[in-house]
Inverse folding.
């Protein structure tokens, strides 16, 4: 029997003989499937590829992995003896297993570091990667900002890509000379079996708050928390932020050995004596790093207490890997992460920040941080994504009303909802806290308005999109990059 079928955890042969079938290619998208592929049928939230099995057979596909019995498949008039059909319990888990087998388990050939949490994944991943590169590792990066290795950048719609894409990318990274991978492991990545077949050498937990709960995400917070905890079942060693909510629960239940890091509690790795720093073209922090008898002064080229947590996580894993401290310091002193507290414009005495904050927790952390730099006015430009939990809109509206001096409500990936309806939801809580706001549905016009009315000393935060380079409306994606639009509109003003 071909090894490919043995890679599946549980399976039943419904038709044909897998022993006689060679795995030449894997496909799970009926639009791109071709003759000779093994096609994996899955039931999604909107489409069920089992319904396209006749179309796929006519394309010349003869090998199928399915989730249904033969009697449930639309095979009218077909002689199934000409087909090889294998049934599995979960198609996505099967895809992960087959993909890892097909690409010869590339994750086993590199140092693997996974990072999960509600906030901080992207920044922490960027910090870890920068430190490892400084320390001599050739490192690939996978996360919200895309896929990066060997000077290449590939856009990714998902923080944690589909398992096939992950395994293919790992192989490409290895062939390009990478010996380490740093990746964001989202709760959806665990839930959808994208991270199956990956055993992380180190798994980092940053924090957890209610987020990603709603239609097409997680049914409730308990489910969300469960999938965040999965990082510890797939890691050799865990690192836990002990200041985070539910940290003690994660610590007690983790099946792998764990190290702790914290600012406010005793921990294996600590940060103390935190100070804010501001210069003409950037803002940042300095702090003391403590580990046993070791004490080092660290300058972090990103502002805010929450970025101290991100830096501490990165320093902790780098210390366990014995990266020299001078390399760690060098990397953090010049770290920049697109769309994460990014200074997009400084002009006429005001500063415009671009950040990915897209929920109440992230927004609150951001605005609290910017407040510590004593702006004349704190202005925030934001919207909320469509077809996502309305609780996110209400929460962000409340935070804006409490913490911003002026708010501009606008579009942000409305998807299949009307931007005006989303703005109305945000406004329902915002108006209870303040009257100092305006709604401008067109995001470019909203940014232009903010710049036109800026005064010396203002800090303007354009949030929600961060690193994203598109705007999504009714299934159409058009290019939209906040930092570019900010500079274009500023240039128009002269």
């Amino acid at each position: 029997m071909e090894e490919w079928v043995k890679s599946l955890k549980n399976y039943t042969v419904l038709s044909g003989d897998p022993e006689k079938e060679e795995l030449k290619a894997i496909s799970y998208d009926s639009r791109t499937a071709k003759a000779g592929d093994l096609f994996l049928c899955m039931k999604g939230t909107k489409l069920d590829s089992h319904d396209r099995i006749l179309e796929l057979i006519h394309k010349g596909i003869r090998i199928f992995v399915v989730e249904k019995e033969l009697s449930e498949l639309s095979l009218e008039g077909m002689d199934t003896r000409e087909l090889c059909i294998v049934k599995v319990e979960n198609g996505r888990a099967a895809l992960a297993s087959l993909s890892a087998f097909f690409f010869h388990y590339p994750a086993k050939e590199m140092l693997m570091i996974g990072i999960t949490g509600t906030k901080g994944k992207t920044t922490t991943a960027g910090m870890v990667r920068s430190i490892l590169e400084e320390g001599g590792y050739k490192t690939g990066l996978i996360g919200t900002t895309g896929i990066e290795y060997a000077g290449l950048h590939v856009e990714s719609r998902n923080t944690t890509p589909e398992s096939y894409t992950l395994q293919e990318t790992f192989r490409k990274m290895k062939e390009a000379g990478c010996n380490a991978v740093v990746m964001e492991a989202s709760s959806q990545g665990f839930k959808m079996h994208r991270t199956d077949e990956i055993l992380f050498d180190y798994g980092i937990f940053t924090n957890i708050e209610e987020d990603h709960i709603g239609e097409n995400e997680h049914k409730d917070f308990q489910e969300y928390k469960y999938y965040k905890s999965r990082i510890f079942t797939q890691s050799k060693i865990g690192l836990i932020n002990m200041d985070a909510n539910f940290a003690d629960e994660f610590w007690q239940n983790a099946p792998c050995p764990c190290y702790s890091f914290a600012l406010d509690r005793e921990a294996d790795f600590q940060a103390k004596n935190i100070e804010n720093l501001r210069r003409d073209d950037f803002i940042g922090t300095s702090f003391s790093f403590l580990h046993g008898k070791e004490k080092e002064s660290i300058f972090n080229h990103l502002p805010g207490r929450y970025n101290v947590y991100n830096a501490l996580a990165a320093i902790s894993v780098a210390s366990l890997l014995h990266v020299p401290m001078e390399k760690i310091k060098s990397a953090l002193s010049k770290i920049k992460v697109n769309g994460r507290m990014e200074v997009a414009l400084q002009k006429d005495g005001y500063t415009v920040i671009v950040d990915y904050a897209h929920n109440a927790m992230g927004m609150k952390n951001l605005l609290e941080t910017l407040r510590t730099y004593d702006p004349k006015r704190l202005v925030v430009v934001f919207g909320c994504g469509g077809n996502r939990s309305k609780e996110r809109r209400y929460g962000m509206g409340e935070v804006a009303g409490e913490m911003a001096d002026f708010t501009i409500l606008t579009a942000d990936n409305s998807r299949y909802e009307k931007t005006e309806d989303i703005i109305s939801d945000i406004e329902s809580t915002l108006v209870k806290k303040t009257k100092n706001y305006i709604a401008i549905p067109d995001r470019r016009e909203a940014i232009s308005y903010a710049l036109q009315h800026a005064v010396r000393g203002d800090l303007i935060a354009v949030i929600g999109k961060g690193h994203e380079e598109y705007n999504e409306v009714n299934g159409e994606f058009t290019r939209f990059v906040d930092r570019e639009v900010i500079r274009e509109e500023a240039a128009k003003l002269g």
Q: What stands out?
A: The chain has three domains: 3-91, 103-333, 342-493. The chain has 15 helices and 24 strands. The CA atoms of residues 13 and 86 lie 5 Å apart.
